[in-house]
Amino acid sequence: MKIEILSDVPASREATWALVMDIPKAASCIPGIKDITPDGEGKYQATLQARVGPMGMNLSGTITVLSQDADAGEAYFLVEANDRRVGGGIKTNMSMKVTAKSADETELEIIADTTFMGRLGELGQPLIRRKARNTLEEFSKNLSKLLSSGSG
Amino acid sequence: MNLKVRLKVNGADHELDIPARRLLVDCIRYDIGLTGTKESCSVGVCGACAVLVDGEMYASCITLAAAVDGAEITTIEGIAENGNLHPVQQAFIDHGGFQCGICTPGQVIAAKSLLEENPTPTEDEIKEYMMGNLCRCTGYYGILNSIAAAAETMNKAAGSGG
Amino acid sequence: MIDFEYHSPTGLDQVFDLLDKYGDDSRVMAGGTALVIQMKQRLSQPGHVIGMRRVGSLNAIESTPEGLRIGALCTQRQIENSELVGKELPLVADTFRKVATPRIRNMATIGGGLVNGDPNQDPPPSLIALGASAVMTSKSGDRVVLLEEFFIDYYETDVQPGEILTSVMVPHAPAGSGSVYLKFLPRTADDYGTVNVAAVVSKEQDGTCKDVRIVLGAAGVTPIRAKDAEDALRRKPLTDENIRAAAALVKDAVDPLEDFRGSAEYKTDMAEVFARRAVEQAMAAIPLGS
């Protein structure tokens, strides 16, 4: 499942890029994320608490920075997490791209290509897609908030 | 996690020591040994598992046995009267109310429950009450005819003129 | 089926103690028709199930000056067959009669259904259209929540930790109004609706719309009150044209999930069609001389 979010962030390209590449800080903008800890070069462990309908999940896994190009303003990540108890997991290839619109406005493009496995893969597609989109939109909004409050 | 569950099934008292997760259909079939009640869809939709709990039609496949502790359960094995088939059972035999028989215990329990609640149902009322009992064999008319015939028999017997 | 511990409290105090003790690891079970299936499918895996069957005093239907107070543990069948409900809240009796099958209605309760938060279920649109509220009870007392604000997301309702729903307050429909609940069932009679609409309409002497409520079910992740459609019709003459124009606005209010009953586009189209029919039929149900 591929989801694209395009948003305008009230901050400079530099500040936006800096936040995107600050994994612990950026990841804290994902709703439900907990316990982000470094685990080697460009790798982090994290847990995500999420609900889809009546099903509550504790997904735990890794965020890996696959590549980054500061000049082009593009970075690629791999997120893999699962919940053994529920028997479901996700594998997301995510790209983030920053493009300057003006001195203090930047366009942030997030593209997440996700495979849902086990239990999560069995839930209805429309529901999962809606939940995934809501999560990404809130992530994007939280990033914006952080940047506009000047702490980015 | 086991717990004690007391059930009166077809008039006989049972005291069981079973896991909390035991479903009523499994309790009836395996713990008590009455296999007349069938499990088919497992989600309460098809009606094959229908039993009476304190006189009310329940789906035993989505009922925890523990949740009906202390209740009076009536299964298909318990509806014969004084060694004679219940009028609904006889009507199903006489009017082609079953073929393979897998849905039949649930159909008979539901029909008995209907006629106790409404002794003179119209055809529409029969259909509405029985809508939760699915059958793959008969095409339903045999079942509807059987229920109508049973109603007539029961009302004649009760002297209400049918 | 997962393993768990089953508790059988006999009073609300015991229920609150159990909720305190087991919190997130517990689920309250009323009729169990939704919860047991969720547990079988491992969508819900509580370590503790708090069964409400022995908690008395929550299955009464009482008259109040404004309408009826319906105990949370009243079964749907009890509500459907209640003389009091049939007389004072015919829309409610009619709506509950349309839920699933008689067997399910013997087991399922009004409270359990509301807390479950399944957007496809029948009762919420009608209850919301009548302005009903849920009474949420905890150790600290009662909290009243308008059902219109009770449904937050897909299977997510406004139940705070330590609370259980103890009764539903349902006001009478406005004097001289007509109401209807339509359930679009193109498949089987025991299915969920492809789209559901409850409408309550009252009119002035001169035939203009005095008030209207249009609430949809199975058209989003929660029940949806089509406020823009209502606003477009309120105080306007109840003509064919105005009703159609209002129904068209329903399309923007809904956001259906695609499933085997239909695509999101199809369900949106049907929401408009059934909203129009619901308003028309509610109008037709207005008692003569009102």
Account of the protein in words:
The complex is a heterotrimer of chains A (about 150), B (about 160) and C (about 290). With about 150 residues, chain A is α+β, with helices and mostly antiparallel strands. Chain A has a single domain (about 1-145), classed as Alpha-D-Glucose-1,6-Bisphosphate, Chain A, domain 4 (2-Layer Sandwich), CATH 3.30.530. Helices cover about 30% and strands about 50% of the residues of chain A. Chain A contains four helices and seven strands, in the order βααββββββαα. Chain A has helices at about 15-20, 25, 120, 125-150; strands spanning about 1-10, 35-40, 45-50, 55-70, 75-85, 90-100, 105-120. Chain A has a seven-stranded antiparallel beta sheet. The longest helix of chain A is centred in the C-terminal third of the chain and has 24 residues, at about 125-150. Chain B has about 160 residues and is α+β, with helices and mostly antiparallel strands. Chain B folds into two domains: about 1-80, Ubiquitin-like (UB roll), CATH 3.10.20.30; about 85-160, DNA polymerase, domain 1. Chain B has five helices and five strands, in the order ββαβββαααα. In chain B, strands 2-1-5-3-4 form a five-stranded mixed beta sheet, sandwiched between helices. In chain B, helix 2 packs across helix 5 (about 140-160). Chain B is globular and about 50 Å long. In chain C, strands 4-5-10-6-7 form a five-stranded antiparallel beta sheet. Chain C has a four-stranded antiparallel beta sheet with strand order 11-12-13-14, sandwiched between helices. A three-stranded parallel beta sheet of chain C has the order 1-3-2, with helices on one face. The mean pLDDT of chain C is about 95. The longest helix of chain C is centred in the last third of the chain and has 21 residues, at about 265-285. Chain C has three domains: about 5-50, Uridine Diphospho-n-acetylenolpyruvylglucosamine Reductase, domain 2 (2-Layer Sandwich), CATH 3.30.43; about 60-170, Uridine Diphospho-n-acetylenolpyruvylglucosamine Reductase, domain 3 (2-Layer Sandwich); about 175-285, Enolase-like, domain 1 (2-Layer Sandwich), CATH 3.30.390.50. Chain C is an alpha+beta fold and about 290 residues long. Chains in contact: A-C, B-C. The interface of B and C includes residues 21, 47, 58 and 129 of B.
